[in-house]
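User: Hi! I'm a student and our assignment asks us to look at how structure tokens line up with a sequence. Could you show me two examples?

Assistant: Happy to help. In each example below, the sequence comes first and the structure tokens follow. Example one:
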Amino acid sequence: MNVPLPVRQIAVVLGILLLWAAGDALHWFNPDVIPPIAEVGQAAVLLFDRPELWPAIWYTLRDSLAGVAIAASIGVPLGLWIGMFPRVEKSTRIILDFGRAFPVVALVPIFILIIGTNHTTKIAMISIACFFPILVQTIYGARRLDPTVVDTVTSFRIPATLRFRKVILPASLPFIATGMRLSLSISILVAVAAEILTQVPGLGTQVSLARTFNEVAVAFVYTIYAGLLGVVLSSAWDFVERRLLNWHHREAKP
């Protein structure tokens, strides 16, 4: 039985909600950690009348996109350059491995001392967190060329500029798109974490304030909204990617 993907996705969401409701009825969950589903639903409706909701969403979205844009503007050109030269790629590998594993949140005290508690601090953290996924994926794309294409380009002595425009860049675009998709999700996570730690306006700050006033359901709703914002960004990027890289998706189909 071939069930359409949207139906399966809705079924999974409904299953989670049913499990949540069953957990409430059977007292499986601590209400101070996972509030009752009815309270969360009520809080979700009431939040729409609160004036702080939409500005918080806007601040988180704006700073997340700004951080990703800065990371991409540096990571893509640098990744293409590193990927084109095997010796450079091998020399920088230890830095790349370190950067991917480094906890960006640990830099919060340093950024606060240097920049202060403002949106610039948050954007800087997002940029650093998103930089390495974009950089690494771009390097992979520039390195993973078809051997036949490489031999052909070498045999015909195609100029480096033409080789970059016609071979390396098109081959790297799907990997760059993957790095962008990963970074968009990471940007929301880092933005919310930075807002909680620095109290810069955004969804994370609203989560922190709700917990301070013991509004557990409200804090839970803000957390869900942050997750939904990540889903919206990912879906929007999938739409853009399919339009820009439709040739790649056609080739990927069996």
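Example two works the same way, sequence first and then tokens:
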Amino acid sequence: MKDDVYDSEDDDMDALVNEAEKLLLSSGSLDLSERALNEGVMKTPGVSYKTAEYALSDENNDVSEYETEGTEELQEGLKALLKGNQTFTIDTIQRKLEVEVPEVLTPHWLDSLPLIVVAEEVRGRVPALISKLQHALDQKNHQEEYKELKQVKSTDECAIAKLPENKPLNRFRNILPYDFNRVELTGKHNYINASHILMNVGEMEAHYIAAQGPLPDTSHDFWQMIWEQNISVIAMLTLDVENGKVKCHQYWPDSVETPLSVCDGLYKLSLLRVQSLEHFEIREIMIENRPMGTGRLVYHFMFTNWPDQTAPDTRPLLQFLQLIHAHHTTGPILVHCSAGIGRTGALITIDLALAQIERKGRCDIFEIVLELRKQRYGMIQVKDQYTLSYLACLDALRIFGSSMELTD
């Protein structure tokens, strides 16, 4: 085992214990209709949240232990639909940016991308929404919202993730996927620390997978998930090492000359091209299923300027999102950082809020995060990430508003 440095001494010890446990332990598709989704995840009438200490800290990387509250009727519709199914697919209508993507990306081309495209019938609401978001920031309403979110308990069981054979597969002992919407791999050993995230925005049904950064012994599972879920874009929001601490195992090929073989040779991974820009790197990776004799192109987008527990500049992050939507073709959008809740939760929140603005001329960041936390524990980890969601929407709206004035 390498002398990797994890996020704390406790995490380091957990990793060693998990490795020891692993050594000891070693001696069908479902299509969800819109009606079913509305009865399950998307609308949960009658759900009430009791006041309790929410187990996330603003001050450090660790997430403390939490208690699981009875689910009552929460998410029962989706649980019933998923029960007994190993793979989970859904036809969705994601945000899509229809632009011609050049072979070589340049800063000039990125600057030309529209950060948001508001439907013509709701463009008149843009000035009022800008004022509303700015007022919320000025009055620090968003800070009160975040305090309220911190009182929400865990809403479901994580029993599968806590099984002895699955403990070594979790980067953190207490950041786990709920049972009802975890991503299930095919085969006997079907666990991966990743969650399906589904949400309706008008007629749009957004589907993401929020995942932890792969460990050395889970990177093959990660690629199995990518193949089985027909994923075409990966959004990576962490560096593999930050401040001397391992945040994510490098799961992609080192160079064009050195392809990787994973899952006992089932998949071959070939790096076709890498492009580096100021704030992100873009990789084109071909994943080949050797027995089937078929391959798929996967775009790997790494945001390189977002330290953990902080907030980056909004403009590059908005461009990053648009770059993802310009390349997305099939499957859910796979998003991961290290734990799969902080930076991952912030990016998904911003994307969903922008979708609301584009279609409805309004957004409700609090309700988005509340819904996300029903689907993966602790989404958006610190106050700065919640504030970032407001700032990113405000920045996108102001730039769009300026362009409207120029065209009037």
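Here is something you could point out in your write-up. The first strand starts at residue 182 and ends at 184.
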